[in-house]
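Please, structure for the following, as tokens.
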Amino acid sequence: MKVSVSVSLLLLCFVCRVKAVTIKSCPLADGNFLQTEVEKTVTLTCMIDEGIDPSNQNELQWFRNDVRVNLAEENRQSPSSLCIQPVTKDDNGVVFICQLKGNTSVNSSIEFDVQYPPDLNDTKEVFVEEASDVVLSCDVQANPPVTVVWKKDGEILDLISGSYKTTNNGITAQLLITKAMRNVHQGMYICEVNSSIYGIMGRTFNVTVQDKVIGFPIGPTIAGVVVVLCTIVFALISRRNKIIKCIKPN
């Protein structure tokens, strides 16, 4: 009985040993977790144990998340390689899986942690009419996430006064200025972000509050014109007989 159990365990260990798929990466991954940056190049190489005989049943498949990667025929046998060049923001959190076509339970995976800074360090000119609202938007999507501070004329913005409101969903940070006034809201605003990897950066907004432009009252003007025309028409109709007498020949 003990011999039978021992043999079964040995067979199980042998099967587990030979039926293995391994992914090696350049740069090196930490287990099945690979940290890299945008614009870099990553090479993944999938290999099966030497104990597995080459055959169609041991053809390899790659998946990017749930989408199968098209491979050249000669790249479907061990070792099979993928080159991700360049790495982009869209690769962050993506899982690459390599598996045996004949036995999908034999697989290995590696997840990308792509680091990138927010797309900032620029200046925008903003013009707003007095008593109107304006929104200043700042792209803050980054990995790792950043902290955001709004400043006006070099000082941290007092959000309590000045009719300000801020929002931040991790992708876009916004500053809303309601009913802009020249003596309160005009000036230089900075959306300053701080990254633990990339340091401090930001976007500058030069806000100019202009005099409110009085728009031409199109609606009332049209209504007035219609009233005048109707009055003229009715006046002509009421004086029709007199007009006819005036134009009759002697």
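The domain at 122-210 is CATH 2.60.40.10 (Immunoglobulin-like). Residues 1-18 have pLDDT under 50 and may be disordered.
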